[in-house]
Fold Co-chaperone protein p23.
Amino acid sequence: MSRHPTLKWAQRDDLLFITIDLPDAKDVKLNLEPEGKFYFSATAGADNIPYEVDINLYDKVDVNESKASVGSRSIVYLIKKEESKWWSRLLKQEGRTPVFIKVDWNKWVDEDEQDEKAAPDMEYDDVNFSSLNLGGGGGQDFDGDDDDEDDDSDTEDLEETVPTKEEQTVGSETGASGNPVDAKV
């Protein structure tokens, strides 16, 4: 009996991204049919454990425009949808999605946000850093200082606010050893 590898998916109105996480996969077999039948099988591990995925996608696909890439850590399939429309789910059958199928949040884009383009040179490995508000792009000033001339201003402010010994002393008492002790606030 074969096992199911983790299958992650995401979509755009015209594309479907399927990533199968299976490190060191051997004897990889992929089959995609126009009516949406997707089949994958491979072996992995020292014991050559068989893995298999056999699913019916939500709608028809364009097999000729779809592409697959077998890497050392995963198998990625870029599937062209026959019609450019947003699918309500990955699988044709309704009901509970199998546990081995997960959303690929690294590639996921909401339907109403898919036309927004990333800033140049701000994408790396399908992560759009421009949307994370990490600073460095002329954004918000978090330290509240408008002038960058004085880097030591924070330490100078601390030195100025330290009270003097006279300001701290409230009264004088004699300690157990008979020496005077200053009482402080």
Observations:
- Residues 6-107 form a domain with the Immunoglobulin-like fold (CATH 2.60.40.790).
- The longest helix spans residues 153-161.
- Confidence is low (pLDDT under 50) at residues 118-144.
